[in-house]
Each structure stands twice: as structure tokens, then as C-alpha cells.
Design brief:
By secondary structure, this protein is of the alpha/beta class. The chain folds into two domains: 330 residues, ABC transporter type 1, transmembrane domain (ABC transporter transmembrane region fold), CATH 1.20.1560.10; 252 residues, Rossmann fold (3-Layer(aba) Sandwich). The strands form two sheets. Strands 6-7-8-3-9-10 form a six-stranded mixed beta sheet, sandwiched between helices. Helix 3 runs parallel beside helix 6, helix 6 packs antiparallel against helix 7 and helix 7 packs antiparallel against helix 9. The two termini are 70 Å apart. The site of adenosine-5'-triphosphate (ATP) has 13 residues, from helix 11.
């Protein structure tokens, strides 16, 4: 199993991101074990160097045993090279595992984002989420795990080895080294750790906001330029940069002061004192301390101190990575789908009937209320939904597609609750044509087949023909291979709408939800498109939202929505006879020349 799959599988239900990372590292235990084994041997070889030096001084130089000198010299050259090769294996493994952790985090974060319903996703700005995927995941895998946590394992082994040898050489000097060191380490690690965590939390929070701000402004620069706010935006960027720099400066200063300056003071002071005490023992003629032992000791003490320094850095690195972990955790555990049915979800089969039973809904802030909405649609029907702006028409579509969930009442497909179905299978059978559809910065062909890759050239040609797009595509020098820019910026609103109609046709759904699908088209193109669309319709179900009432006069039924309630239902003629809201909307449009029927003054209140 790949590391990413492993992570994705274990993220769900894990108590925290730590559990997931721990399990993930455990899944690579063999690799880490090999790395550590190489490190143990490599470290043992490096740690043997001072012993070899002691031997060279005490046995070869002092006692004049010149024959062995050649061997010891060869050892002094070969051992460090062998040690470097062995430790480089662990370095390679570190890079691999760090990269794998980053990839796995990024993948599961993105996967989670793909599962979030729009109302949850809207809590975050796109730039902020991109920052979490790129920077925060990198901070954990490629900075913390690769450069701090795994080296800490390595260093811990060196530390244990060094301590063992130091005690074997001289327990008195070893003890002095520790008593000097421990209070310092505890103090620095504690103070620095807390300060770094606070400062990094602030740093990441600024970055998250700045990412969101930049992406929003860059994506909508036209609005900035329209209202000539370039100067104001420049000032805003400056202010972000100042706060960002200040926060970064604080974190680096903390590291420089506590780790680098105090750390090197601790190291040189400690080494000096240990050397002084050792030298005093040698001068006193203490048999337990030879000149060779003293030289070896003065090499081991800095090794020990710098190992402990690395462990300290790993601890601080952990505090530094904590805010990044929180940012990732926040998204990974922001929302879990409520399992309403104990059975596993079933795949939706051909939809013959769809019904709303006393459905109620409102957004978190209480807006967008739907109140007791009930209707039933049989396959093959064309039902229109009309009503004033903000009445809740698009909300009904989002509920059908499972982007929103009702607070009360039921939505049924073929008699079964929508919740029992696998959402993806419902979306395969029900599709939506939005008023302002989104297109990707890709070719027209790729945008079209985004809805269904298993279509032939003939299918694409037919769909374009229905959508009244074929002539337009023919005029493009690169035809279907024309790239249309981010969000389809190189297309007009009407072209984008027609492309969206073709894309929906290629999806071949049972139910087509159309949210003002032709609002940007001129009447002639609209009429031709609707005529062809109805010809293609066959036994499919159409649900059409339209402000332009001429579009929906032929509907089998019209639902009139006002303030989230269905206030009238009937055919066009039946509703006109009722002389209610529909009649009012209809004749208001007629008076503006949108429809050609003669104005009946009496019908207008
Ligand atoms: N994510 C949201 N959070 C809070 N309120 C929302 C959200 N989306 C929509 N609303 C509110 O819900 C109400 C109904 O919105 P909806 O989009 O369903 O209206 P509509 O009938 O489709 O209007 P229009 O004809 O203008 O498209 C509106 O008042 C809108 O402000
Ligand atoms: Mg709408």
C-alpha cells in the first residue's frame, strides 16, 4: 500500500494528525530501521575516532610504538569516510520519508477538500487552502520530519554512544559535563519552545490570511482596476508584508538568541571547564586520566553538546510545526458526513420519480429559508420553478444534488430517501447547468468531456449542435483544441452558457436541473437552443429555473416560489387564471416587451 493511501485510510477517525503521522512512520519502520542501523554503525565508527586518537597518543606516540602508527593513520583516514557513507544512507532515507509524508498529507488534504460540501468549503478562502496544502504540509514533512525529527533519532543514538564512552573514560568528567548541561538545556528548551510556538501560530495565521487575500485580489484584478483601487491594494500588500516580516523576524531572533548564541556559549563554556578539570587531574597525576583520555574527552564533549543541541532543535522544530499541524487538522476534521443509514449506501438506478416532502431548510445565519416545500416529479416531465430573486430557487437544486441537507422533511428518489444513495451515483444521474458556469483553463474539448470521458466525436458534435455552439467552434482557428483561459475568461457569458449546456448533454443524465441556462443568450439563439434541447430530452426530466418566463411557458407544471414557500402550482394557463404572483410576474414582463402577448391591464395589480 502506498504511503498516501495508508494516510488517507487512517486519517478518518484518527484522534489527531499525530496518530496519522505516527502510524505513517510505523508503516515505514523497515526503512527507518535500515537507516538507523547504518547510523548506528556510522556513528560507532565516528565515535571510535577519538579512541583511536587516544590510542595513537598514549600507545604510539608516548611509548614510541612507531610500527603501529601506519595502521592508526590509515584508520584515521578510512573510518570517517566509511562513517560518512553510512550516515548518508540515513540522510537519503530522511529525504524520502519527509517527501512521502508531505505528499501523503497533501493528497489527503486535497481529497478531504474534494469531499467537503460547498457550505463548509466556503468557510475558507481558496488561497488559504492552497497555502495549507503547499506550505503547511511541506513544513511538516520536508522541514520537521525530514530535517528535525528523523535527525533527532540519529542524534539520540550518537548521544547514547557518546555518554557511554564518556562514562567509561572518566565518570567524574562525564558527570561534570552533565551537571553543567542539564539545567541549561531544560531552561532553554522550555522557554524557547513556548515562545516559538506562540510566534509560529501568529506567523501561520498571518500567512493564511495573506494567502486568501492575495489569491482573491489576483483572481479579481479587473474589479480592483474598475474601481481604481490599485493604490489601496498596494498599501494593503505593504501592510501584510510588514506584519509578516515582523512575525518572521521574531521567530528567527528567538532561534538565534536561544539556540545559536546561548547554545554555543553553553558548548564552549562547558568544553573549557571540562578541559580545565581534566587537565588539573592530569597535572595532579591522577591515574584515571591520561593525556590521551583528556584529548579524547575534549572531542567527545562537543560531540555530546552538539548532539543535545540537535535534539533541542528537534524539540523547538516540533513546537514550530505545531501550528502547521493545527491548520491541516482543522480541515481534515472539519466535517464528517453523518451516517444516517446503518447500511452501506446504494447506487442510484434510473430515476423515475423525485419528490420533496415538507422540506425545510435555512442557512447558518438564518437566511435562505425554505419552508414546507413539497412536490413530486415523474420521469419525462418538464417542471419550471419561478419566483422573485432570493426566493430559494437555486437552494432547491443544491438540496437535490446533496450540496445542502434539509433540516426537516425528506427528499426522495424512486421512493427512497436521498441519504441512502451514494451521492456520486446521484450526481451521475442528475446534472446541473448553472447560470454562471465554471470552465477550466483547458481546451474546449477537455472542458466538454470533463462531464463524461466515454463519449465519441459524434456525441460531442451532436451536443455542440444542440447547444448552438458548432458554428462558433468552426470559426476558431484551433477549433476544439482552443484553450479558453481560467474560468473560461476568453469566452463571452453566452458562449460559456452554451458550452455548459453541451457539457451537461454529454453527461447523459436522467434529470437536468437548469438554473437560468439561457439568461445570457439573445432570444433567437435561446429559442433555437431550447427547441433542440426539448428534442433531445426524450424521457428525461427537466427542472428549469427562469426569470424570463417566455422560456418556460411550455412546461408541464410551474411551481411559484415566494420567500421559500410554494405559493402556486399549475400550468401557464392555469396560473394566469389564478391571477396571483405568477400572473403579476408574467404581465410585468410583458409590459417590458419581454413577451409578445398583448398586455392585459386588468391582470396587473
Ligand atoms: N451560502 C449562503 N449563506 C447564507 N445565505 C445564503 C447562501 N446562499 C444563498 N443564501 C441566501 O439564500 C437566499 C436564497 O438564495 P437562492 O440562491 O436560492 O435564491 P434564488 O431564488 O435562486 O435567487 P436568484 O433568482 O437571485 O438566483 C438568498 O436570500 C441568499 O441571500
Ligand atoms: Mg438562483
Amino acid at each position: 500500500m502506498s504511503l498516501s493511501n495508508f494516510f488517507a485510510k487512517h486519517t478518518k477517525g484518527a484522534l489527531s494528525i499525530y496518530n496519522s503521522i505516527n502510524r505513517l512512520l510505523l508503516s515505514r519502520k523497515k526503512l527507518i530501521f535500515i537507516g538507523l542501523l547504518c547510523t548506528v554503525v556510522g556513528s560507532a565508527l565516528s565515535l571510535f575516532m577519538p579512541i583511536l586518537m587516544k590510542f595513537t597518543v598514549d600507545t604510539v606516540l608516548v611509548k614510541g610504538n612507531w610500527r603501529i602508527l601506519l595502521f592508526t593513520l590509515a584508520g584515521l583516514v578510512v573510518l570517517p569516510v566509511a562513517a560518512a557513507i553510512l550516515t548518508s544512507i540515513m540522510s537519503r532515507i530522511r529525504v524520502q520519508i519527509g517527501g512521502e509524508v508531505t505528499d501523503a498529507l497533501r493528497e489527503s488534504l486535497f481529497q478531504k477538500i474534494t469531499q467537503l460540501p460547498p457550505y463548509v468549503l466556503h468557510q475558507y478562502k481558496p488561497g488559504d487552502l492552497v497555502g495549507r496544502i503547499t506550505r503547511s504540509c511541506g513544513e511538516i514533512g520536508e522541514v520537521y520530519i525530514q530535517n528535525e525529527l528523523l535527525p533527532a533519532f540519529q542524534t539520540a543514538l550518537v548521544c547514547i554512544g557518546t555518554i557511554g564512552i564518556m562514562f567509561a573514560l572518566s565518570w567524574k568528567l562525564a558527570l561534570i559535563s552533565f551537571t553543567l548541561l542539564i539545567p541549561f538545556i531544560l531552561f532553554i528548551s522550555h522557554v524557547l519552545g513556548k515562545k516559538v510556538e506562540r510566534s509560529m501560530t501568529r506567523f501561520f495565521s498571518i500567512l493564511s490570511k495573506a494567502d486568501g487575500y492575495f489569491v482573491e485580489r489576483i483572481a479579481n484584478m479587473k474589479t480592483v482596476q474598475l474601481f481604481t483601487q490599485e493604490k489601496k491594494e498596494k498599501e494593503a500588500v505593504k501592510s501584510w508584508m510588514t506584519t509578516y516580516r515582523e512575525s518572521r523576524r521574531q521567530t528567527s531572533y528567538l532561534r538565534i538568541w536561544f539556540l545559536d548564541i546561548l547554545g554555543s556559549f553553553e558548548q564552549s563554556f562547558g568544553t573549557g571547564l571540562v578541559f580545565a578539570f581534566g587537565a588539573w587531574q592530569v597535572l595532579r597525576g591522577d591515574p584515571s586520566m591520561t593525556i590521551g583520555s583528556l584529548i579524547a574527552f575534549t572531542v567527545y564533549v562537543p560531540i555530546l553538546y552538539s548532539s543535545i543541541h540537535t535534539l533541542q532543535q528537534a524539540y523547538v522544530g516540533h513546537q514550530k510545526a505545531k501550528p502547521a499541524m493545527k491548520l491541516i487538522e482543522e480541515v481534515l476534521f472539519v466535517w464528517e458526513k453523518e451516517e444516517e443509514s446503518s447500511n452501506s449506501p446504494i447506487k442510484a438506478s434510473t430515476i423515475r420519480e423525485m419528490s420533496f416532502e415538507a422540506v425545510c431548510f435555512h442557512h447558518k445565519d438564518g437566511s435562505g429559508k425554505l419552508d414546507d416545500v413539497s412536490f413530486c416529479i415523474q420521469t419525462g416531465e418538464t417542471v419550471a420553478i419561478v419566483g422573485p430573486t432570493g426566493a430559494g430557487k437555486s437552494t432547491i437544486f443544491d438540496l437535490i444534488l446533496g450540496f445542502l441537507e434539509p433540516h426537516a422533511g425528506r427528499i426522495r428518489l424512486n421512493g427512497a430517501h436521498l441519504n441512502v444513495y451514494e451521492l456520486a451515483s446521484v450526481r451521475e444521474r442528475v446534472t446541473l447547468i448553472e447560470q454562471a458556469p465554471i470552465m477550466w483553463d483547458d481546451t474546449i474539448r477537455n472542458n466538454l468531456i470533463y462531464s463524461n470521458e466515454n463519449v465519441t466525436e459524434e456525441d460531442i458534435r451532436k451536443a455542440l449542435n444542440i447547444a448552438q455552439m458548432h458554428d462558433f467552434i468552426d470559426t476558431l482557428p484551433e477549433g476544439m483544441e482552443t484553450v479558453i483561459g481560467e474560468r473560461g475568461v476568453r469566452l463571452s457569458g453566452g458562449e460559456r452558457q452554451r458550452l455548459a449546456v453541451a457539457r451537461a448533454i454529454l453527461r447523459d443524465p436522467d434529470i437536468v436541473l437548469m438554473d437560468e441556462p439561457t439568461s445570457a443568450l439573445d432570444s433567437t439563439t435561446e429559442e433555437a437552443l431550447m427547441r433542440k434541447l426539448f428534442k433531445w430530452k426524450g424521457n428525461r426530466t427537466f427542472l428549469i429555473i427562469a426569470h424570463r418566463l417566455s422560456t418556460i411557458r411550455e412546461a408541464d407544471r410551474i411551481l411559484v416560489l415566494e420567500d421559500g414557500r410554494i405559493v402556486e402550482t399549475g400550468t401557464h394557463e392555469e396560473l394566469l387564471e389564478k391571477e396571483g404572483l405568477y400572473t403579476k410576474l408574467y404581465y410585468t414582463q410583458m409590459s417590458k416587451g419581454r413577451v409578445t402577448k398583448a398586455l392585459t391591464k386588468s391582470a396587473i395589480e
